[in-house]
Amino acid sequence: MNYDESCVFCKIGRKEIPAAIVYEDSEVMAFLDINPVSKGHTLVILKEHFRNFNEVPKNLLAKVMNVCQTISQASIMELKASGVNILTNIEKAAGQEVMHFHVHIIPRYETNDGFNLEMKPLAHEEKELTNIATMIKRAM
Ligand code: AMP
Ligand code: ZN
To answer: Which residues does ligand 1 sit against, CB inside 6 Å?
Structure first.
């Protein structure tokens, strides 16, 4: 099992440092983000160290997503969230600060919940989309 001694989430997974744990099994752990962006902001991790989403074996990814869905449902039922954002950051350019794969579960509330995930469309031409789709398909 991959483990990085200098990694804060590896330490949380091994309970070497404390966290507000929401869920745990032999492979997956979920705990509250220490600097929540909304009430109930939770991180779901694999206990094993993988740098980010792109490095995770697909069978393990499915286990993580399963827990993400359950926590998302629980936030709506118990915290009375009106919606949820689920996101994972890959590398610095995307805002990843902790280089141990994690998924953010961010419950959303109708009134001023303080979180903003604005997606501002880029100007583009239709032909460009076709070309980009071709490039992505080629690499799959
Ligand atoms: P990211 O920018 O996607 O790498 O997010 C890392 C997240 O980890 C941030 O939201 C931090 O607040 C959170 N975080 C960092 N250290 C801890 C910790 N010891 N316990 C809980 N959450 C943490
Ligand atoms: Zn780690």
So the answer is: 8, 19, 33-35, 43, 89, 95-98
pLDDT tens sequence across 14-25: 999 999 999 999
Query: Which candidate, 107, 117, 118, places its Cα nearest to that of 76?
Result: 107
Task: Estimate the share of the chain in helix, then strand, then coil, as percent rounded to the nearest 5.
Answer: 35, 20, 50
Would you say residue 79 has pLDDT above 90? yes
Does this model's pTM top 0.70? My answer is yes
Catalytic: 104?
no
By three-state DSSP, how is residue 7 classified? coil
- For the CA of 97, the nearest atom of ligand 1: 4
Nearest to 31 by CA among 16, 18, 19: 19
Closest CA to 40 of 91, 82, 97, 98: 82
At residue 37, the pLDDT reads: 96
- In angstroms, what CA-CA distances link 79 with 6, 72, 100, 116? 34, 10, 27, 19
